[in-house]
């Protein structure tokens, strides 16, 4: 195995490990292999010396299967021109890389996905229920909806669909909030920005990027209802979403209050975060409405009442009680904010989970919560890069190392994250990292990572530790054959209950592998023959329309595909 650049290694004293913690891990968790595997790309901010706000927040990445061959491909969003001196026609366009099937990639040309724009983020979803994944590109300027044909080609249907928001969009998400069977679209906007209202700011006597507070120009997010005929209707006003302008950065959707309807959480930069509770009661919902309850639920600010610079967001269920907790990552000197879900309110447990001291050292944008070593315990990877510095300085004044945090349990059963970032190697490859997405590109059971770096090469971190634990993975499809965004999964095995969900959009500016991944610990040896191992793996699926199905599946180390309404699964 070729090991390049960033090496993330397991730290700590192995003699202190307890029986209910994982076995001693090998020293390398990930190896950086982007160039060796054909994923060659650099996100170009277009900076020409003068700091312009949009330059510091891009760019995005999607992990998706564009050609329906069951392998995860990669789509990378590009900016590529100076906002003061250039124009969108000078942009080099976004890039699509097809997976050969073994985690090696070929760049594609003339697919229709190479749209130009000042690209910042991307969302994925099959909005027309044809079984082919589509792309929504969030830009500074007109956003783009690209309809996939299932063979790796795309057609720009922005005008036809009516979703070409012209704001400063930093995130988007597809989800079926009205439970009518098709995916609606939420678009996060950051500022009402233009060259005319750009500000001049300094740090330590040198020019730098301004805080959003310098502009005093929060923007309105957009909610588009899918009309089922290829078009959308902007319901931002009638739904209540437009009632609270903010400096939006990232978005995630979960049923936070357990009423069976998916809600929306938006992180905001130096403003209170927003939790929009879905007010629907009967499916299909005839009129989508949301109520903002972040303050009421305790997630608008931290436990000191501080509105932080909310960037990326994930919803790991670290206490495995079946409801979604919230982790919001923030800027240097501010801690992460980890809110534990208690049903109708949240509790800030950042310090108790060991995140306070670790996180405040850097500015975090992308974040992934996943079981990287397949021991059954969630880990964290955070993609970092400062926002204060003079872009005219030599080198990269915004560069920071990314960090890897291992989930552990004490003898008393207390959960904490432990920093296992390797100083060796990681410090030699500092970047200004933004978008961060996860997927298993070589289908070896270890979750890999793609990191987008501002004015630097993309990184492909191939998992080297996942093979030490067993795993199982589910691809959940609706009756129409699209990924079942928001479907929940309960796994019963050996007396332990585990929870997962189809969560395509989380982190920052990113879309993930749609498969639901469960690490099962060290070699549980679930035989492929149910007759020899009758218990198998017991799953219950709650589909987005609230229908429930139960399965007993044989075989670990296997990808299962389950279509709603069928009685079994298929494995590739």
List the helices and strands and how they pair.
Elements: E1 4-9, E2 28-32, E3 61-64, E4 73-76, E5 95-99, E6 105-108, E7 118-125, E8 134-140, E9 144-148, E10 154-156, H1 158-161, E11 169-175, E12 184-189, E13 201-203, E14 206-208, E15 222-226, E16 232-234, H2 236-239, E17 248-254, E18 263-268, E19 274-278, E20 290-292, H3 294-297, E21 313-314, E22 326-328, E23 337-341, E24 346-348, H4 356-359, E25 364-370, E26 379-384, E27 403-409, E28 415-419, H5 423-426, E29 433-439, E30 448-453, E31 459-463, E32 470-477, E33 488-493, E34 496-501, E35 505-506, E36 510-511, E37 516-521, E38 537-542, E39 548-553, E40 558-563
Parallel strand pairs: 3-36, 32-40
Antiparallel strand pairs: 1-2, 2-31, 3-4, 4-5, 5-6, 7-8, 8-9, 9-10, 11-12, 12-15, 13-14, 15-16, 17-18, 18-19, 19-20, 21-22, 22-23, 23-24, 25-26, 26-27, 27-28, 29-30, 30-31, 32-37, 33-34, 33-38, 35-36, 38-39
């Amino acid at each position: 195995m070729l090991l390049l650049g960033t090496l993330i290694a397991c730290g700590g004293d192995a003699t202190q490990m307890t029986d209910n913690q994982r076995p001693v891990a090998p020293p390398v968790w990930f190896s950086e292999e982007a160039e060796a595997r054909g994923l060659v790309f650099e996100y170009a901010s277009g900076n020409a010396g003068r700091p312009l706000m949009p330059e510091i927040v891009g760019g995005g990445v999607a992990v998706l299967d564009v050609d329906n061959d069951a392998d995860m491909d990669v789509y990378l969003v590009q900016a590529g021109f100076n906002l003061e001196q250039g124009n969108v026609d000078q942009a080099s366009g976004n890039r699509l890389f097809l997976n050969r099937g073994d985690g090696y990639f070929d760049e594609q040309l003339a697919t229709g996905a190479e749209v130009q724009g000042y690209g910042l983020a991307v969302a994925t979803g099959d909005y027309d229920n044809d079984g082919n994944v589509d792309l929504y590109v969030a830009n500074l300027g007109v956003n783009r909806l690209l309809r996939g044909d299932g063979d790796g080609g795309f057609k720009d249907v922005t005008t036809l669909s009516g979703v070409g928001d012209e704001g400063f969009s930093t995130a988007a998400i597809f989800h079926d909030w009205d439970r009518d069977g098709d995916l609606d679209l939420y678009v996060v906007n950051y500022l009402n920005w233009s060259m005319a209202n750009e500000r001049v700011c300094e740090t330590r006597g040198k020019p730098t990027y301004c805080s959003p507070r310098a502009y005093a120009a929060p923007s309105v997010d957009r909610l588009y209802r899918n009309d089922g005929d290829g078009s959308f209707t902007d319901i931002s006003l009638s739904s209540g979403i437009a009632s609270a302008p903010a400096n939006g950065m990232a978005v995630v959707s979960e049923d936070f209050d357990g009423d069976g309807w998916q809600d929306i959480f938006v992180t905001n930069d130096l403003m209170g975060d927003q939790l929009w509770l879905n007010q629907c009661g009967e499916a299909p919902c005839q009129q989508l409405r949301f109520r903002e309850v972040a303050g009421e639920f305790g997630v608008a600010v931290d436990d000191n009442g501080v509105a932080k610079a909310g960037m990326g967001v994930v919803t790991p269920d670290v206490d495995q009680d079946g409801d979604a907790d919230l982790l919001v990552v923030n800027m240097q000197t501010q801690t992460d904010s980890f809110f534990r879900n208690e049903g109708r309110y949240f509790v800030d447990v950042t310090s108790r989970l060991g995140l306070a001291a670790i996180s405040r050292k850097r500015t975090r944008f992308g974040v992934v919560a996943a079981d990287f070593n397949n021991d059954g315990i969630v880990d964290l990877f955070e993609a970092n890069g400062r926002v204060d510095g003079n872009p005219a300085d030599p080198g990269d004044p915004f560069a920071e190392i990314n960090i890897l945090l291992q989930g552990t349990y004490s003898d008393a059963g207390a959960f904490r994250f432990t920093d296992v970032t390797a100083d060796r190697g990681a410090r030699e490859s500092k970047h200004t990292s933004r978008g961060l997405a996860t997927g298993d590109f070589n289908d070896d059971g270890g979750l890999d990572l793609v990191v987008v770096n501002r004015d630097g090469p993309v990184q492909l971190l191939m998992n080297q530790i996942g093979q030490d634990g067993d795993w199982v993975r589910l691809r959940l499809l609706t009756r129409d054959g699209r990924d079942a965004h928001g479907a929940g999964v309960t796994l019963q095995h050996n007396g332990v209950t585990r929870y997962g969900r189809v969560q395509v959009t989380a982190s920052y500016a990113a879309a993930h592998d749609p498969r639901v991944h469960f690490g099962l610990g060290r070699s549980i040896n679930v035989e492929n023959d149910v007759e020899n191992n009758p218990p198998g793996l017991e799953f219950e699926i709650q589909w987005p329309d609230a229908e429930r199905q139960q399965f007993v599946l044989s075989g670990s180390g296997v990808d299962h595909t389950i279509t709603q309404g069928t009685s079994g699964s298929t494995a590739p």
